[in-house]
Amino acid sequence: MRKYGLSVWGAGILTLALAAVALGQTTTVTKTVQNPDGTYTIIEYPAKKEVMLNLTPVNVPGAKGVATILRDDDGTRIKLNVTGVPADTTAMTLYAVDDQGVVTALGPVTIANGTGTLAATTPLSKFMLFASPEPAVTAYDANTKVFFRSAVPQGLSIIPLSGAVGETVAAVATPTSDYTVPMLGMSTFKKGDDTKLKLDFSGPLEGARANVFIDHKKANLTEVRMRFHELKDAPAGLAYTLWAVSPDNQFQRLGQVVNFNSKNEAEIKSTVGFNDFGLLLTTEDAATAATIIKPAGHRVGVITLGP
Questions:
Q1: What value does the mean pLDDT take over residues 12-28?
Q2: Of 258 and 289, the one with more pLDDT
Q3: What is the pLDDT of residue 268?
Q4: Quick one: 260 and 164 in the same domain?
Q5: What is the pLDDT of residues 169-193, one digit of tens each?
Q6: pLDDT band, very low/low/confident/very high, at 153 (cuts 50, 70, 90)
Q7: Which of 23, 170, 257, 292 is the most exposed place for a label (fewest CB within 10 A)?
Q8: How far apart are CA 138 and CA 19, in angstroms?
Q9: 229 shares a domain with 203
Q10: Mean pLDDT across the chain, nearest whole number?
């Protein structure tokens, strides 16, 4: 049995301004935008949080690329490093593609002895990166010659291109929202072991306690039990609702708790079908909490692995 220290941040102590999310709607996107092959990797970068971004080499064996992204009040700063570039490559340009499909040149990559660097700033907050030997790319498509393109960091989700038409999907990415949570990393959990995660709440649920038990049965089947202790009463007419959130921001409701007659202990038990997921706690309308398929209320806690 492994033990982790966890923390739950209440909505009242969030330091990052989070974008609102439109709920209860079906969104139509193309399979390409859903990125089964990694072609499109547009994400929204969180404010004032440094993100390490891997760049996937495209037909460049042995090459590696990484970018450090930091978005602040002055824009988004990008520091790029690539290695293992073919010796005959002397020029490369880094581009950004935003969620409208617009391509912006960020600057030429300085290359020497197979190693390249670039420092650039852009006003964009939602984009993917690609590096090309072409000096004047104006459109990104299947015909664009690409040496590197950005991967998606764990815990962030892909943004579909605006106005895309194609396959209807149940839930598209809602990055940097109240309902975006970090993944627990289920690949690190030993199958068949019951892992106990201890945590204390803060913010609106300060003083409450809970234990989460994770039983990783198969690649896509995990049992989750969340046991509350000294639970604070939910606001009138609301229920505490636990959600599993997949890497592409699909939601699975695991259960809900409504306090009656000063009862301060409760348990939610359910099985999750995602290969990996994070856990989110919201307050939902008690009359509909048992039937809704997406969170619609306020986020009151998100569970993350701590030190």
A1: 27
A2: 289
A3: 86
A4: no
A5: 333 333 345 677 778 877 777 666 6
A6: confident
A7: 170
A8: 29
A9: yes
A10: 74
Among 81, 156, 155, residue whose Cα is nearest residue 125 = 156
Looking at residue 19, the DSSP 8-state letter turns out to be: B
Answer yes or no: is pLDDT of 7 > 70. Answer: no
Half-sphere exposure of 148 (CA within 13 A, CB side): 28
Question: Of 85, 98, 79, 31, whose CA–CA distance to 58 is shortest?
Answer: 85
pLDDT at 266 (0 to 100): 76
What is the span of the domain harbouring residue 244?
3-21+177-305
CA angle, 253 then 295 then 184, to 5°: 60
Q: What is the CATH number of the domain that holds 34?
A: 2.60.40
Largest CA distance in the chain: 75
Within 8 A by CB and 6+ apart from 107, the residues are 93, 94, 118, 120
Residues 119 and 195 placed together within one structural domain of the fold: no
Residue 167: its pLDDT value, please? 31
Q: In what order do the strands lie in the sheet with 194-200?
A: 251-257, 238-245, 278-285, 298-305, 3-8, 194-200, 209-218, 221-229, 266-272
Token match 């960020």: residue? 106
> Quick one: pLDDT at residue 235?
72
Q: Quick one: CA torsion of 256, 262, 264, 266, rounded to 10 degrees? A: -40
Can you name the residues that pair with 298 across neighbouring β-strands? 283
Pair 127, 186 in one domain? no
Are both 47 and 104 inside the same structural domain? Answer: yes
